[in-house]
Sequence to fold (105 residues):
Amino acid sequence: MVALTIACGSSEGGNNESSSSAKKTAAVDPPNGAELFKTYCIQCHGLYGDLQINGAKDLSKSELTLEERITMIENGKNLMTPFKGMLTPEQIKAVAQYTFELKSK
Ligand code: HEC
Fold:
C-alpha cells in the first residue's frame, strides 16, 4: 500500500534555525594577492615590500617581470622560500601581481 502523499509544496525550506547566518562560500573567490602577501611574504619583505630582512630584495624597486616574479616565488632563491607546493599556481600569480602594487606606494 504505497499511498504517496503528494509532496505538499507549501513549505519552501523554511526550516532554517536562523536566517541571519547566511554565509557565502569562498570557494570560487579568486585568490587575494594582498592577503597572501601579508600571510607569506611580509616576514622578509615587509608590508610595503621594502623591509629587506634576510637579504630580501626591495620589491618596490624590483625590475622583474611578472613571469620572473612567478618563477622566483615558485622556486625561491638563497633565503627566499620556494612557495611551489605551498601555494597554488593561482595564488602565486595573484601574489606576484600584487608585488607590482608595492611599487606605487
Ligand atoms: C624567508 C624570507 C622570504 C620570504 C618569506 C619571501 N621572500 Fe621574496 N625574497 C627573499 C630574498 C632573500 C630575496 C632575494 C633573493 C636573491 O636574489 O638573492 C627575495 C626576492 C624576491 C623577489 C625578487 C625581487 C627582485 O627584484 O629580484 C620577489 C619578486 C619576491 N622575493 C617575492 C616574494 C613573495 C611574493 C613572497 C611571498 C609569497 C616572498 N617573496 C617571500 C626572501 C623572502
Observations:
- Residues 16-21 have pLDDT under 50 and may be disordered.
- The first helix runs from residue 33 to 40.
- The chain has four helices and no strands.
- The domain at 33-104 is CATH 1.10.760.10 (Cytochrome Bc1 Complex; Chain D, domain 2).
